[in-house]
Amino acid sequence: MRARETSVAVIGAGNWGGALIAGLKRAGLVPHEVIGRSGWRRAKLDARTIWICVPDAAIATVAEKIAERRGSLRGQSVVHSSGALGADVLEPVRRAGARIAAVHPVMSFPTRRVVPLEGVMFGVEARDAAVRRELNALVRRMGGVPFALRAETKALYHAAGIFASPLLVAELTAAMETAELAGLDAKTAQAWVRALAEATVRNVFARGPERSFSGPFARGDAETIRLHLEALAEHPILTEVYQGLARQALSALPVKNRRELEKAIGKRRVN
After folding, report:
1. How confident is the model over 94-121, as pLDDT tens digits?
2. pTM for the full model?
3. I need a labelling partner for 131 at 20 to 30 A (CA). Which of 15, 250, 259, 262 fits?
4. Taking the C-alpha atoms of 160, 162, 164 and 168 in order, what is their torsion angle to the nearest 10 degrees?
5. What does DSSP say about strands 99-105 and 121-125: parallel, antiparallel, or unpaired?
6. Would 65 be classed as within a structural domain?
């Protein structure tokens, strides 16, 4: 394959953009150009694939900029990395002749520290089969694992990712905060939550959720649940977190004494 056919330009060199640049280099694909906020004047935008790595709110604006600067984009692909937005947000470049797609890395990039892309899953949304094959090949070349995404379910897909990562962080934070309220110092609270959480995560993916679920909900111990909620009463946000997760447990996992547990959890608050 000729160099022009594998050339990639990266727009945005933040946490994710930096990881993508490093992944391309490890795969032997030195980025054709990297365009930051101040690099638009010199940008050629003539790579086979232009990969937009900016926050979701900026993607449409960047697409408009590309279309204005480049004019015709025939023979090129423009890709964004949002897990929530469909490729249609790239409509300005599609009108300029580009093939459009979205490629979302299933990984957290919280800092500028480069995260290796080997083994990382990538959701690929592309209506054009040729583009999809090309992007799948690019992902595999970087060591990633591509899978197909549908535009119409992207919001739900991304919500699932929020449950699996940032809201998981929030839940663990709630657990550590509650442990500290119980009198544990911060270091002990972190170690205590870590021991339980790591064992639980291992069990869920080794044995399945149903066989990893234990404690008062599994036993149907409504009195213990009431005791928890009484203790949390002075902390309304922690109470809401507890009740929300408890309702999910009753909905999705095997519990005993369901009616008493529902009474113990209390009615859903209506605003």
Report:
1. 999 999 999 999 998 989 899 999 999 9
2. 0.84
3. 15
4. -140
5. antiparallel
6. yes
